[in-house]
Amino acid sequence: MESAVRGGTRWKRFAVVMVPSVAATAAIGVALAQGALAASFSVSGQSFKVSAEKLEGKGFFQYGGMAEGTDLEGNKAAHPVAVSAFKTAEITKMCQSVVTPNVPIFGNISLQLTAGGNGTPVKAENLYLDVEELGANAEFKNIDIGVAAGKATKGPGIQPGTRANPYGFSQQADSAVLTDVKQKAWATTAGTFKLSGLSMKLHKGVKECY
């Protein structure tokens, strides 16, 4: 079975998280009332943007969650996210950006990171992506929609060190291919993450990946 989806959802601010965050399909139905928790660390008060020409992942699993941490003033904050996980993933022409606003003397400062654009893709294992906004073309193979999160078997499972309702909504697929990816995320974790052709630069003003 194959399914193709194009879609986006809405929901925004310098943390150097050298990972892309890519989710798939708008049908996740975030399980906020089910006690789900996303990243196993306190997230910063800023989200970041990521774009990629292509992401190819095997062992896909997605469920609803919350990215919990603080805002830029140190107050507690929580952000609803779609947690997407892959056993393995390869990302071509990845770009990540984050803007720090109102830096004294300098004003807005942007950090931009690129990798995987020299013919060798970025590679990751046990990749977890906490995403709040996504636009992409997506194709899934052997997708199961509406699986109880605790019963999903195709992906790496619920993120270690976090909690999630084992009876909550989730979906899984043997593989997923996303192209023309544009997304906003709060956190990403991976067992291993190899970035070929890594470049990181600071820019004065606002310079984002998209």
UniProtKB/TrEMBL annotation:
Instruction: Show the InterPro entries listed in the entry.
Output: DUF6230 (IPR046198)
- According to the UniProt entry, where is the signal peptide? 1-38
Provide the alphabetized UniProt keywords: Signal
* UniProt-listed Pfam families: DUF6230
| Keyword Signal in annotation | yes
Instruction: Give the domain of life.
Output: Bacteria
Q: What is this protein called?
A: Cholesterol esterase
Q: Which organism is it from?
A: Streptomyces agglomeratus
